[in-house]
Every structure is written in structure tokens, then in C-alpha cells.
Amino acid sequence: MRHIAQFFALAGALIMMAFGTQANAASPGFAEPDMDYIRVAPSEQMDLREALASDRWQSLEGESPNFGYIRDTVWLRVPVSAIPSDRKLLEIRYPQLDDITFYLIENGVVRQRISTGDHLPFAQRQIQHRNFLFSFETDPLSDYQVFLRVRTQGAMQIPIRLWDPRTYFEATSIEDQMHAIYYGILIMVIFFNLFIFLALRERMYLLYVLSTLSYLMFIGSLNGSTYQLLWPQSPWLHNQTMVLTVPVALIFTLLFSRAFLNLRVTSPRMDKLVWYMVLVNFVVAVATFVTDYSVASRLTVALAIPSCLLLTVMGPIQWIRGNPQAGYYTIAWGLLTLGSAITAAISTASCPTAS
After folding, report:
1. Cα(259)–Cα(217) distance, rounded to whole angstroms?
2. Does residue 223 sit in helix, strand or coil?
3. For 51-59, which contacts have Cβ atoms below 8 Å and span 24 or more sequence positions?
4. How far is CA 339 from CA 19, 131, 183, 222, in A?
5. What residues are paired with 114 via a beta bridge?
6. Which of 257, 263, 269, 345 has its CB surrounded by the most CB atoms within 10 Å?
7. Under the phi-then-psi rule, with left for phi > 0, alpha for psi from -120 to 50, and beta for the rest, what region is 113?
8. Which three-class secondary structure state does DSSP give residue 14?
9. Reduced to 3 states, what is the DSSP secondary structure of residue 237?
């Protein structure tokens, strides 16, 4: 059983590696511009003309637009002079936004308008990429501004970078290679343990396969890879996968942990608690099909917390009680939890930075 614990530790390290690469893909060819914003309540309406004339603009200097879970529409005003080249690329590095409208204003006139978001088929994007990319050209003799209107039912996080196009694709080439290594190793781990299950018929290996596969789908959904590669014509399936993989991953992880630690024998009381959390996550998984995305995403995050706490504490408790497998489990789960926490902090915008 030790090699399963080692794979758990490997998964945590790989999660940190893959998303650390994305967070640190720094290059001299990009700028994070100082922006202004307006929040528009759901009961209000504001079009571009009204946004241009509004005196409600507030500065976001030095901050990445991160408003948490809100129903408001957000307008952003983005200066484009930070990149000196005539050809520019605006990147929104959060692929879970539902509805984005991009406006390029030249000397007060709309020169370009693009609508996108993960509620539209992937093929409708101007550039076929898992992040939202907007390409445009400028003339040094004219004055330009970019306006963005953003609506979403999930976390309102809008991290923006302005790039020189050539530098962007050179930087993301390295990032994509790291992601490919990450996915490839996890897929190899899945098939390796699947073959062991088929040979030994030991249920624990199947539970580990299903747990790892669920985490793989969750991470792929977070960074937009599954939408781009698996179901680009189905926005509904993309959003449903995003909220469904959380409780499903927790169900299989709880069952695997129960089997790995042999809780039915070593701790019957904790074994019952694990089954209770499995039931809770099963109910959450069913609820994602009957509630809207906003409610489902908040519900999955809120009810994932007690499951993760249980998974975190059961290892040390069993280790103290002398369970021989608990030491491997505790170290492996600690690394996986750390990697997942870093991933969630980067990808889900749990801490708002603007009000």
C-alpha cells in the first residue's frame, strides 16, 4: 500500500508545480495595467454609452480585480499604453467567467466589439485558448481605451494582463508543456493503479483511480482545459463538470481513505463519520443538477470544508493510535492538501480584493 501513499504525495507536488508555473509565468513582455471599475447592481442597467459618461469610476490601482461571489455586472476601463507595440493582446487569466464583452475605443469611437464567455461555445472565441484572449492593433497617433463588461454566476475574478503577442505565446508554450507533463503523469498513475486493480481485484486501488481521475477533471475544469479539449460545444457540461467534480472527488477520496486506514476495524466511530460525509457529498452532487451555478458553486465549496477537515485530521489521529498505515497517509495527504489549497487560492478567488 505504500506506493499509493507515494502517489498521493506526488499528486500534491504536481498540483503545486503545475499551477506555480502559471502564477509565475512572468515575462518582460506583459504589463498588469492600473484599471478603473464600476459595479452595477442586478436591478440596474448600464450600456457602453452610459459607462463612458459615468462619474462612478473607482480606481483599482495595484490590485487584481477580485470581487468574490457577487451578482453585479462589473465594468472595467483599461489603458493600453503600457505595451509599446502596435499589436497587443489582452488576456483574462480566469476561464470561469460567463459573459464578457470587449470594447476597443479609438478617439471616442467603438472600433472593435467582441462577446465571449464560458456560457458560449468555445469556437466563438476570437482566439482558441483556454483563457480569454483579445487581439487588437493601435495607431500611435490615436488615443485608445479598452472597456470590459463582465457578468458571471461564480467568482467575479478578472485578472488582466496586456501582452506583446509574440512574447505571450512564447511564455505560454512553456506553461502548456508543464501542464502536459502534469496531466501525463497523473494519467499514467491512473492507468498503473487500474492495471493493479484488474490484476489483484482489490477495491482500494479502484477507489484511488476514481479519486485521482476526479481531481484531474477538477483541475482541468478550473484552468479551462477540459472545455477546450473535451466538450467545446457544450457550455452546460463545462459548468456542470466544474461543480460536480468537487463532491465526486471527495466521495471517492473519503472511501479510499477509509479503506487505506482500515477504519472499519481500527476506528468504527470514525468509520461511521466518514460514511456520513460521503452521504453529505452525494446529496451535494445531486443538488448541482437542480440548482443554478451560483448556488451550486457556493454549496460545493461550503460543504467541502468539513470533508477536507475530516480527511486532514483522521490521519494524525490514527497515527497517534498506532495505525501502521496512518503515517504514510498523513504525509501524503498533507502534501496533496497544500497543493490543492494553492490551486484553489489561485483559481477560485476566495478572498475579494475590491468592494
Report:
1. 23
2. coil
3. 51/75, 51/77, 51/147, 51/149, 52/105, 52/108, 52/147, 59/34, 59/35
4. 9, 22, 15, 14
5. 102
6. 257
7. beta
8. helix
9. helix
Q: Which three cell numbers stand for residue 141?
A: 497617433
**Cell numbers found for residue 218:** 477538477
Amino acid at 313: V
Return all residues near 53 (Cβ < 8 A) that are at least 6 apart.
none
Where does residue 68 fall: left (phi above 0), alpha (psi -120 to 50 degrees), or beta otherwise? Answer: left
Under 8 Å between Cβ of 115 and 101: yes
Q: Where are the alpha helices (DSSP H) in the chain?
A: 2-23, 48-53, 165-200, 203-222, 225-229, 235-260, 263-266, 268-287, 293-320, 326-347
pLDDT, position 177: 85
CB 16 within 8 A of CB 344: no
Each residue's pLDDT, cut to its tens digit, for the chain (355 residues) gives: 555 655 555 555 555 555 544 444 445 578 888 899 999 999 999 999 999 999 999 998 666 788 888 999 999 999 887 667 778 999 999 999 999 999 999 998 999 999 999 999 999 999 999 999 999 999 888 899 999 999 999 889 999 999 988 889 888 888 888 888 888 888 888 898 899 899 999 998 899 899 989 989 998 998 899 999 999 999 999 999 999 999 999 999 999 999 989 999 999 999 999 999 999 999 999 999 999 998 999 899 888 889 988 988 998 999 899 888 888 888 777 777 666 665 555 544 444 445 5
β partners of residue 78: 146
Please list the residues that pair with 69 across neighbouring strands: 155
Phi-psi region of 300 (alpha: psi -120 to 50; beta: other; left: phi over 0): alpha
- From the options 1.20.210.10, 2.60.40.2380, 3.50.50.60, 3.90.550.10, give the CATH code of 34-168: 2.60.40.2380
The b/e string for 35-45 (b: 16+ C-beta within 10 A; e otherwise) is bbbbbbeeeee
pLDDT at 225: 92
Question: Using alpha carbons only, what angle is made at residue 318 by residues 320 and 344, rounded to the nearest 5 degrees?
Answer: 110
* CA nearest to 119, candidates 93, 100, 91: 100
